[in-house]
Amino acid sequence: MNYAKKLVVEPGAKVRLARFDPAYHGKHGNEEEAGRALEEMKNKIGALQRKMYGDNRHSLLMVLQGLDAAGKDGVCWHVVGAMDPQGCRVHGFKVPTGEEAAHDFLWRIHPHAPAKGEVAVFNRSHYEDVLVTRVHKLVGRKVWERRYDMINQWERLLHEENGTTILKFCLVVSRQEQLRRFAERLDDPNRQWKISESDYTERAFFDDYLEAFDEALERTSTAHAPWFTIPCDHKWYRNLAVAGIVLEAMEAMHLEYPKPSVDLGEIRRKYHAAEQAEKKGSV
Amino acid sequence: MNYAKKLVVEPGAKVRLARFDPAYHGKHGNEEEAGRALEEMKNKIGALQRKMYGDNRHSLLMVLQGLDAAGKDGVCWHVVGAMDPQGCRVHGFKVPTGEEAAHDFLWRIHPHAPAKGEVAVFNRSHYEDVLVTRVHKLVGRKVWERRYDMINQWERLLHEENGTTILKFCLVVSRQEQLRRFAERLDDPNRQWKISESDYTERAFFDDYLEAFDEALERTSTAHAPWFTIPCDHKWYRNLAVAGIVLEAMEAMHLEYPKPSVDLGEIRRKYHAAEQAEKKGSV
């Protein structure tokens, strides 16, 4: 199964999320089988990410955006959790602080771009500035319109200057499933604290968000930083799809452990000298 | 098994790592049994860390120091890897950059202290400034001597001002086992790149490091930021011990999910209104 090919937004393609099927789940027989497939992929992702850390030439940026309750946090736990925390950072972007808002919209984002060898995961991102700001008319069309190019240029910088592979995930949940998940939270004492008024007030803007996503995906899905639309009504398929796309991208990096930086023959002599010395008890 | 009680450096206690047994492995029957125990602990750690993130009152700082090849990286992968990457950050401190060296030794450390709800892991730390700098005489006794109090004061700040639990792990490996691990790297093409000249040149300072650790542990193991000496000749015991201490500390936090910030009755009405509207197909 090639998840990337199936779910990518081809550069220049039209996007109509209103016609997208968030309940799609491919051909997996059942959730149990999917669970085993996910575990296998996670093991491979963990191994490759550690190799990437050693290789130290590539970096990976995962951008998580999507509708409320589609599962940005779930992807962090169930997919990103496969990685070695050394070399992998999740950064959540909230409503900008006063200082952040006093700068251009990429100013607070840039410091969190991944270093060579590292993985960075953005839970929300610079895309908030063409999504929530548009839906709630916090800035005018002129402002958010010019941001698409700014975003493309900035992402190209990361890609060309630092070898960053950029994967952007748009997590799509249906209106019905979103409501069902809100109801679940209402009945679960361990999750009631997560409920906010905005869960419901934002639902009034569901279609506006779809439209804002449509245009953002159309204008910023590029060869160097593609968007993927992820059907999220089935959490297990969502996890499989994101893991599959990450795994395929890592495999395409052709990662290698670096060559030794030392003369191994010389090191072997040092090793034997140390061994001899120790046997004699002279150290 | 209470790992913390067994391995803690009691405040004020004398430390003589030269007499410490790095091959200690408690009473576990075999590695397989220990592996199962570790998996169980990791599941609990993952669940509690996610609860801590929700609870948002406590934070945890794990400091990893130790002898070369004792397993700082291994602890990141095998123990910290149990946590949700959202809310957990590993930061590795290397040789200070020019800008870092132009500041006091805590300047580059402080920004990485954990926020409320979060876990921060230091792979090496501010302790390098009373260890490597002392062993290699990069600063004089007067300078590193006064740093113990500065460290204690700074750690107290994190603890008292931000509710940070600080756990400091000194990973101890025997001279023989360290050499054996270097030899393993020599024979493993995937790990040869990790070999450096300093692996061998630093071995000449093995006893000096033990002495530097002795004094650092004596002077900075406090009630608010205790040190634990971890026997690391058996990797499985090392992982169990660190996981056990982390788990015990998290359990002692008595974590709770926050109370809902909204009126649940009101939210239930909103939910039913949304459900009705959807049934009618009016949205």
UniProtKB/TrEMBL annotation, chains A, B:
It comes from the Bacteria. Residues 32-255 form the Polyphosphate kinase-2-related domain. Keywords: ATP synthesis, Kinase, Transferase. Coiled coil: none annotated. GO terms for molecular function: polyphosphate kinase activity. It catalyses: [phosphate](n) + ATP = [phosphate](n+1) + ADP. Belongs to the polyphosphate kinase 2 (PPK2) family. Class I subfamily. This is Polyphosphate kinase 2 family protein. It comes from Ferirhizobium litorale. The lineage of its organism: Bacteria, Pseudomonadati, Pseudomonadota, Alphaproteobacteria, Hyphomicrobiales.
